[in-house]
Design goal:
Elements lengths: L10 H16 L13 H10 L10 H20 L23 H13 L15 H6 L7
Helix pairs in contact: 1-2
Length: about 140
Amino acid sequence: MPELPQGVESTFRYILIAAKRAEQLISGARPRVTGRHVKPTTIALSELAADRVPWRSVTADEYEALLQQEVAAREAEEHHVAVLFPAVPPVAPLAVEPEVLDEEDEDDELDEELEGPKFDENLEVVEEAVADELLTEDLPAEE
């Protein structure tokens, strides 16, 4: 770890300042130093090393006031969240009135369903060859 910047009395405070600056960078703040770094934490540490992050110690009362402001801002943000992809309303099926059938019609339809399809209708009558005839038939000559 590099030497602590002037005014930073402990490593713990240095890390806290870097973490807060990294949060700002993640939220969209522009970096104050140019470099090849991409990660917000690395950028924040390089900004602290270059003494580009202004900061000051706050009293306990100031800290509480800042904390309350931050909580109020987050609550306001939660209540006014912009919806990027609105939920699609559910599609309700169309209400279709069922056909009212007489009891006789219902019974006929039920009987047809239970019987299954009728295969005997529309069939051609084919005479079957007897096995003896098949054996005695002349086979075509092979060429």
